[in-house]
């Protein structure tokens, strides 16, 4: 196929045959296609969540009128809530409501799910983003120390690998026992005692914006353990992929060419290696983000982190399906959007991605 | 080793640009340390082109990397002796001292134009890394013969053809007016006509920039065409070094003689017996010639009588075995419309005859062969294969023998697969397998071997055995030797000729190499852009080509002037 | 005349050029896998006590007489609970991987071998599943079906095949592009024979290696879900859930939540090491 394309390129005079034929830059076309796919995915996600909600235990009509209501009252509520309508009609209504921010009412808290999410989401985003950045840094260190054979790097890699083999809840409880129980260096959980000054609802970010040094330090102090626990597994996953692709790219002919030009090793790495090797690692990072949204549920529970994960964990035992559906929908949407961004970044890094 | 201080005489008083002194090198490959160069002595004088010739595994590329100071750390190189460029030790000097040498005194052109440029960086930026400014880059691209140079700067490598990419590499190599260009098989991946252009370019660049060139190649013809002096590397030993003319005319070492002997040329005798002698060299401890036990005897099946018939008769009865008429093949490619790979091809091959199809990449020659084999379908036109007593159907031998064999099956299992239709009992099929292996010059022991355990030449023999264990009506060969070293290639070609004589098989042989075509085909068809531009008896066509494209192809073939005497009209045309 | 410069025969009948280095170590790692499987199988026989009945003092520390790993908050033997928890975790993980391998393997093989629109359609569906946050939706699935081990396994399995479909499809396509398939076709092999004899044996090593390297991930995922209460119902021993229930004792009796957690670590470690062993022993590409 590539040979054929080369041949075609030759026939077309050697300059961008694709651009000529359609008049749309391949990167732009790729972007549009990818955005379309993201919208489609969000619809599929909503369809999955809606389908699950129809088979979930618990009758919304009965929940609406109360456990002691008569069967007639329940039937009347069913009709009024439109629960007897055809599937597609109900789905359309569900999507319409979701788009206007109505995700139903939690059976447990009795608040609208949207309000609950608004209250709990910021803390989770703060924790996940901190852990994600940490994971990227650790992953990069893991890969680069291996590919460039840094002395002593093997020990660090071994420790990280061992930590990534452990279940996150074990890491969390060992962390609490050691750093809180024995050493007393770090708190056992929570986000801290300072009042969040707003506007984002994220302690560390908001206190930084307001220049409150002690509140910020306290926020970071509370973030440290949960974010490390959450970051370990994705760091190793990303690090392994990056390491493999760095090794591959370092052995490629064009790197030899770059070196033969007499470029400094730094310029070779920055200009000819990293950009070519980053693609698979980006994909893996996007994938890991999805796992982090699931993993955060466990971590928040151990550390009593007032986030969406704790909200979900509390909803599971009481089968509060509207809440579970809302969390899945929102976190799923965040995941889909992040991965779209990752793909677009990849297309910018490597022109061949959008050419295929 | 063998040739000591000889180069100084021809280099004159000037200090050599590069010097390799008593250089031994060992590398770790697959966990085993092996010495790949043994005490090599060599120097490159200012302004000279030194041709370094060797087959795969001779250590020639490792020598190039040593000169550039770019031996891969992963192979943990251990060196003795000295390799210096402009006085700097490229093996042991600090990287801070070696890097400026690469930057200012050295330029490099590598083998594979597809992978040697950074695929994610525009050509302009890759050039700017050495030129410093786009204006200079444009000037250089103009100089190396890239048209519309200014436009190409914003293009990515995958948007250029192989020839253009290699020109860009050459531009980068000369950008800083280096003292020495190290060119490692720069033309191997290119078509002959493009190869000829690139060789001319390299020589012009030498003249313009006054630099030296170390031209590394496996092809004596290419080396001789461009080099002032020739060095021959054989398994890590420098076995020959001297003025090009001298080496070609009076080779001192047996290996050089063998290399010259294995060369196929457009003139000279088409010796039918060479196959056997080279086969002995192929398997030094082998059990004799390709026709093993049953020298000339029947191979089994219905092939017996035919074999007797054809060996006595040079030109078989004129009835067509393959009839190709009005063959068209179009590929629909997204966003690029339709490309026509075959544009109305008519050909017939008589029973027992051999037709060689010659063309460059993209000429449609392989597509044609694949349609005849039934691996692809034609858009229009027809292929008819006449059944005969000598065999039925078409069998094909592929370019890369290694990948045409199923890695996890043994040789016996693969050969046995073709015998399934024959419904032989176990002993009979076992006998048939052994006989066929003998026919292709392989020991019966290989029955249990898997492809990974075989050498390149042995794999191609297995592929041949599989194609002929049940004799086909037509044997299709798709560049079966282009991936093999010259000596091996020659023995495999000889083998195909032997088998043809033995079984009376019709042969359709696709190649990019006119000399191979001359050896393998009674007739030659020259293809270009999906059409047959010329068709004729092999010798006649080469002696007096009618089509300008055929003439262009002929002119592009690298020749050794002292050995290949061409018919008069062509002599002047060779650049 | 015979110039000795051509490659010599490298025929060693009966041997395949595999990785010779570290073979004994690799076998040792695979033996660990077998050992864990045997322990999981024989757990009811190995357990000294009934795992759901109180049999001793409350919260006895490890190495207490009669209770090697101590007892929990209501006096149940931790060794017995852990052994049976291992049994559940291990076979659950194997079941998820096996179902993923089966479903993903068939889809990947069909897509890779058939090509064309079949490939396009199957891979679009696969990508759809890959693009959804599987672990999260799995939680929703289990919540919708109601808690229970079977439901958890179903929920996870739904999202665990696309990974295999992708890998196996890629491997199949890479193999299918090799001329050896065309050569086999010319040699007279039919469709079925092409797939079973010339394609499948090349895909199996890759599939087995990626599956074995994946068991550890599934162990961790299932333990996490169990920790959240998406597993077996209360009295039954389960590693993740046992840790979650004893979380409040963490700073006083660390071993009650700690022992089952460490058991998960051991399982995941053995799975990963065993996977590495298998990878070293099988001639898989990549």
From TrEMBL, chain A:
Signal peptide: none
Classification via InterPro entries: BPD_transp_1_N (IPR045621), MetI-like (IPR000515), MetI-like_sf (IPR035906)
Primary residence: membrane
Listed transmembrane segments: 35-56, 127-148, 160-186, 219-242, 277-299, 311-337
PROSITE patterns linked to this entry: ABC_TM1
Gene Ontology annotations for the cellular component aspect, listed alphabetically: plasma membrane
Keywords linked to the UniProt accession: Cell membrane, Membrane, Transmembrane, Transmembrane helix, Transport
Subcellular location as annotated: Cell membrane
Biological process, per Gene Ontology: transmembrane transport
Its membrane topology: Multi-pass membrane protein
Pfam families xref list: BPD_transp_1 (PF00528), BPD_transp_1_N (PF19300)
Residue ranges of every copy of the ABC transmembrane type-1 domain listed in the record: 121-346
Family: Belongs to the binding-protein-dependent transport system permease family.
Name assigned to this protein: Peptide/nickel transport system permease protein
Organism encoding this protein: Microlunatus kandeliicorticis
UniProtKB/TrEMBL annotation, chain B:
Domain named ABC transporter: residues: 18-260, 327-554
Protein name: Peptide/nickel transport system ATP-binding protein
Main location: membrane
Compositionally biased residues, Gly residues: 286-305
The species this protein was found in: Microlunatus kandeliicorticis
Family the entry assigns: Belongs to the ABC transporter superfamily.
Stored InterPro entries: AAA+_ATPase, ABC_Ni/Peptide_Import, ABC_transporter-like_ATP-bd, ABC_transporter-like_CS, Oligopep_ABC_C, P-loop_NTPase
UniProt-annotated location(s): Cell membrane
Pfam families: ABC_tran (PF00005), oligo_HPY (PF08352)
A Gene Ontology cellular-component term: plasma membrane
SUPFAM superfamilies from the UniProt entry: P-loop containing nucleoside triphosphate hydrolases (SSF52540)
Entry-linked Gene3D superfamilies: P-loop containing nucleotide triphosphate hydrolases
One example of a Gene Ontology biological process annotation: peptide transport
Membrane topology according to the record: Peripheral membrane protein
GO MF entries: ATP binding; ATP hydrolysis activity
Disordered: region residues: 280-320
Keywords attached to this entry: ATP-binding, Cell membrane, Membrane, Nucleotide-binding, Transport
Superkingdom of origin: Bacteria
UniProtKB/TrEMBL annotation, chain C:
Pfam families xref list: BPD_transp_1 (PF00528)
Membrane topology designation: Multi-pass membrane protein
Keywords: Cell membrane, Membrane, Transmembrane, Transmembrane helix, Transport
Cellular compartments annotated: Cell membrane
Superkingdom field: Bacteria
Cellular component terms (Gene Ontology): plasma membrane
GO biological process, one term: transmembrane transport
Main location: membrane
TM region positions: 25-47, 90-118, 130-163, 254-275
Record-annotated ABC transmembrane type-1 domain positions: 86-275
Family affiliation: Belongs to the binding-protein-dependent transport system permease family.
Protein name: Peptide/nickel transport system permease protein
Source species: Microlunatus kandeliicorticis
């Amino acid at each position: 196929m590539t040979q054929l394309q080369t041949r075609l390129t030759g026939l077309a005079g050697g300059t961008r045959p694709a651009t000529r034929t359609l008049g749309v830059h391949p990167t732009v076309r790729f972007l549009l296609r990818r955005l379309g796919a993201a919208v489609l995915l969000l619809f599929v996600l909503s369809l999955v969540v809606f389908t699950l909600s129809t088979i979930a235990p618990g009758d919304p009509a009965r929940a609406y009128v109360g456990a002691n209501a008569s069967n007639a009252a329940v039937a009347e509520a069913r009709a009024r809530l439109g629960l007897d309508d055809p599937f597609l009609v109900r789905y359309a209504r569900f999507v319409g409501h979701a788009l206007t921010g109505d995700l139903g009412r939690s059976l447990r808290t009795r608040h609208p799910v949207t309000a609950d999410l608004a209250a709990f989401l910021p803390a989770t985003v703060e924790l996940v983003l901190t852990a994600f950045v940490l994971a990227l840094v650790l992953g990069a260190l893991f890969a680069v120390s291996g590919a460039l054979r840094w002395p002593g790097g093997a020990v660090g890699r071994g420790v990280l690998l061992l930590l990534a083999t452990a279940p996150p809840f074990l890491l969390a409880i060992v962390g609490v026992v050691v750093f809180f129980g024995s050493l007393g260096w770090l708190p056992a959980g929570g986000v801290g005692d300072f009042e969040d000054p707003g506007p984002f609802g994220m302690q560390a970010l908001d206190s930084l914006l307001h220049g409150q040094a002690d509140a910020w330090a306290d926020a970071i102090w509370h973030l440290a353990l949960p974010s490390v626990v959450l970051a370990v597994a994705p760091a190793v996953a990303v690090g392994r992929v990056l390491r493999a692709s760095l090794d591959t790219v370092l052995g490629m002919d064009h790197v030899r060419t770059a070196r033969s030009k007499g470029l400094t090793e730094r310029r070779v790495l920055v200009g000819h290696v990293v950009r070519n090797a980053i693609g698979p690692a980006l994909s893996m990072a996007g994938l890991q983000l999805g796992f982090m949204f699931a993993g955060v549920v466990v971590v928040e529970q151990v550390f009593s982190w007032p986030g969406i994960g704790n909200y979900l964990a509390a909803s599971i035992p009481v089968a509060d399906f509207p809440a579970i559906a809302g969390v899945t929908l929102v976190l799923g949407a965040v995941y889909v959007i992040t991965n779209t961004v990752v793909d677009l970044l990849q297309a910018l890094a490597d022109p061949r991605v959008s050419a295929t | 080793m063998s040739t000591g201080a000889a180069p100084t005489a021809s280099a004159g008083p000037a200090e050599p640009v590069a010097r390799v002194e008593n250089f031994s090198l060992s590398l770790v490959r697959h966990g085993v340390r092996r010495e790949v160069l043994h005490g090599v002595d060599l120097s490159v004088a200012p302004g000279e082109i030194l041709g370094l010739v060797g087959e795969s595994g001779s250590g020639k590329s490792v020598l190039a990397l040593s000169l550039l100071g770019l031996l891969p750390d992963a192979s943990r190189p251990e060196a003795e002796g000295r390799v210096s460029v402009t006085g700097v030790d490229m093996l042991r000097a600090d990287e801070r001292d070696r890097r400026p040498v690469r930057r200012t005194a050295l330029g490099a052109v590598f083998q594979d134009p597809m992978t040697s440029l950074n695929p994610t960086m525009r050509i302009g930026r890759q050039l700017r890394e050495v030129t410093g400014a786009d204006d200079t880059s444009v000037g250089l691209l103009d100089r190396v013969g890239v048209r519309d140079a200014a436009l190409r700067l914003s293009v990515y490598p995958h948007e250029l053809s192989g020839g253009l990419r290699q020109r860009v590499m050459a531009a980068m190599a000369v950008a800083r007016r280096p003292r020495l260009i190290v060119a490692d098989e720069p033309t191997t991946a290119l078509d002959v006509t493009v190869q000829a252009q690139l060789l001319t370019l390299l020589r012009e660049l030498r003249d313009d920039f006054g630099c030296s060139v170390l031209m590394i190649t496996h092809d004596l013809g290419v080396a001789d065409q461009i080099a002032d002096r020739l060095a021959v590397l054989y398994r890590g030993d420098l076995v020959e070094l001297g003025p090009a003319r001298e080496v070609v005319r009076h080779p001192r070492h047996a290996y050089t003689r063998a290399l010259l002997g294995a060369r196929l040329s457009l003139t000279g005798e088409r010796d039918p017996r060479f196959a056997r002698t080279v086969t002995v060299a192929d398997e030094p401890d082998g059990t004799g010639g390709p026709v093993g036990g049953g020298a000339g005897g029947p191979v089994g099946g219905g092939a017996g009588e035919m074999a007797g018939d054809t060996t006595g008769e040079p030109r078989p009865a004129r009835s067509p075995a393959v009839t190709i008429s009005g063959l068209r093949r179009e590929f629909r490619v997204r966003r690029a419309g339709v490309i026509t790979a075959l544009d109305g091809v008519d050909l017939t091959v008589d029973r027992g005859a051999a037709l060689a199809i010659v063309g460059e990449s993209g000429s449609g020659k392989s597509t044609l062969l694949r349609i005849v084999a039934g691996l692809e379908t034609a858009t229009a036109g027809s292929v008819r294969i006449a059944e005969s007593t000598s065999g039925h159907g078409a069998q094909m031998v592929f370019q890369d023998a290694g990948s045409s064999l199923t890695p996890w099956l043994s040789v016996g299992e693969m050969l046995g697969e073709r015998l399934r239709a024959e419904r032989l009992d176990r002993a009979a099929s076992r006998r048939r397998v052994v006989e066929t292996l003998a026919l292709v010059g392989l020991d019966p022991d290989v029955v249990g071997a898997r492809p990974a355990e075989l050498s390149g030449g042995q794999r191609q023999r297995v592929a041949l055995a599989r194609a002929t264990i049940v004799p086909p009506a037509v044997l299709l060969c798709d560049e079966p030797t282009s991936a093999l070293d010259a000596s091996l290639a020659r023995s495999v070609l000889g083998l195909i000729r032997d088998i043809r004589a033995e079984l009376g098989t019709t042969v359709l042989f696709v190649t990019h190499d006119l000399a191979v075509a001359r050896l393998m085909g009674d007739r030659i068809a020259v293809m270009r852009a999906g059409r047959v531009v010329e068709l004729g008896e092999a010798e006649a066509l080469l002696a007096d080509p009618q089509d300008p494209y055929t003439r262009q192809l002929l002119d592009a073939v690298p020749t050794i002037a002292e050995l290949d005497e061409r018919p008069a009209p062509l002599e002047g045309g060779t650049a | 005349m015979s110039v000795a410069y051509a490659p010599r025969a490298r025929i060693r009948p009966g041997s395949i050029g595999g990785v010779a280095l570290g073979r004994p170590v690799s076998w040792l790692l695979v033996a660990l896998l077998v050992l864990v499987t045997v322990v999981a199988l024989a757990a009811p026989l190995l357990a000294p006590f009934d795992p759901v009945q109180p049999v001793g003092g409350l919260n006895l520390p490890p190495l207490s007489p009669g209770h090697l790993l101590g007892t929990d908050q209501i006096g149940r033997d931790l060794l017995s609970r852990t052994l049976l928890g291992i049994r559940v975790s291990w076979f659950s993980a194997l079941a998820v991987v096996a179902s993923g391998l089966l479903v993903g393997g068939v889809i990947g093989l069909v897509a890779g071998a058939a090509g064309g629109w079949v490939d396009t359609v199957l891979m679009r569906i696969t990508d759809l599943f890959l693009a959804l946050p599987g672990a999260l939706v799995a939680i929703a699935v289990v919540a919708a079906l109601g808690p229970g081990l079977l439901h958890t396994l179903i929920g996870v399995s739904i999202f665990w095949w696309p990974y295999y479909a992708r890998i196996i499809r890629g491997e199949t396509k890479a193999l299918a592009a090799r001329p050896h398939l065309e050569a086999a076709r010319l040699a007279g092999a039919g469709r079925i024979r092409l797939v079973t004899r010339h394609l499948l044996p090349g895909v199996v090593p890759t599939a087995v290696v990626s599956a074995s390297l994946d068991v550890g991930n599934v162990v961790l995922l299932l333990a996490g879900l169990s920790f959240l209460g998406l597993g077996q119902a209360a009295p039954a021993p389960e590693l993740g859930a046992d840790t979650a229930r004893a979380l409040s004792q963490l700073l006083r009796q660390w071993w009650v939540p700690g022992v089952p957690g460490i058991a998960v670590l051991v399982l995941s470690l053995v799975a990963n090491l065993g996977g590495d062993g298998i990878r070293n022993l099988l001639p898989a590409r990549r």
